Amino acid sequence: MATTNIERGQPGSKAFFKDSYLLHKLHSLSGVIPIGAFLIFHLTINSYSLGLSGDGEAAFNTAVKAIGYAPFVILLELGAIMLPILFHAIYGLMIVAEMPGPGGNTAHYGYGRNWLYTFQRLSGVIAVVYICYHIYDTTVLKYTWELTAGEVEVGKELGFQSISYRAMAWRFADPLYLAFYLVGISSACLHLGNGVLNFAIRWGLAIGKEAQKIIAILGWGLGIALTLLGSAVAINFAIKGQLDHKAHTNRDAFVKVLVKEELDKREKEVKRNEPAGQQAEETK
Q1: Could you please report the per-residue DSSP string of 67-87?
Q2: CB 189, CB 230: distance < 8 Å
Q3: What letter would DSSP give residue 50?
Q4: CA–CA distance, 156 with 152 (Å, rounded to integer)
């Protein structure tokens, strides 16, 4: 009877890492809930910028402020978003590290599932890079502005304006930023769509071939729809941010300009609402 020795670089090798049944189930679960759910929520919020129901800038800024002022938002971001993403990313990269060598599974078994397996690993790596940068470029910078401004009111406004409609549009007006985002968001969305089937199989939700086929179609439909939505948001931002990007070459300086404009606007509104007599006294 012939036997085959499985070496590192071939399907089935586990030279450095043996995956746990429980951890693998938790990995697939975290990819859908809460990470997948958050991705859908995040793109839904971003879609307000398209202005499908009115003023896109006002709608987007209102949504961003509502989330920013939500109670315990930092704890929610850390516990319900950051930690699951960290676990999913680290465990996923450990799985990628044990992928077969040149050609991957497809070099040994040219089945559709093996192509999807390879796609899932590669899209996951791209998504991790994109998500890390996106978190730094938005959340980290927002809290940095808030904590280093000195005055609480100014810090809050700096933090908000750093991720406001015009600030995001300014970013996307850069062709390199736009291209990076399109690749990153497409990888994240299609990674989710393809991962839905893996989640359903591992959790016993799709046992038969027909059920798996239906789940696969639904998952890819979701992934493609989210990709199109994210791309539409990005392209819309890029178009709307052209004038600001030409007028302001530095992001931090532009954020300060936005804060000054907003504070001046508030001051004018306060003076406009003051009684005429009080305004006359102040001008003496």
Answers
A1: HHTSTTHHHHIIIIIIHHHHH
A2: yes
A3: G
A4: 6
Question: Which residue carries 């954020």 as its tokens?
Answer: 255
Q: Rounded CA gap, 71 and 261, in Å?
A: 27
Tokens linked to 284 = 């003496």
Give the three-class secondary structure for 260.
Answer: helix
Question: CB-based burial of residue 114 (10 Å sphere; 0-12 exposed, 13-18 middle, 19+ buried)?
Answer: middle
Q: Token match 């504070």: residue?
A: 263
Q: Which two tokens stand for residue 34?
A: 């809460």
Q: Where are the alpha helices (DSSP H) in the chain?
A: 21-32, 35-47, 56-68, 73-76, 83-97, 104-108, 112-135, 141-148, 152-161, 165-172, 175-202, 209-240, 242-247, 251-273, 276-283
Amino acid identity at 155: G
Nearest Cα residue to 46 out of 202, 237, 192: 237
Helices assigned H by DSSP within 136-174: 141-148, 152-161, 165-172
State pLDDT tens for residues 159-208: 999 999 999 999 999 999 999 999 999 999 999 999 999 999 999 999 89
The pTM assigned to this predicted structure is 0.86
Query: Residue 224: is it exposed, middle or buried by C-beta count within 10 angstroms (0-12/13-18/19+)?
Result: middle
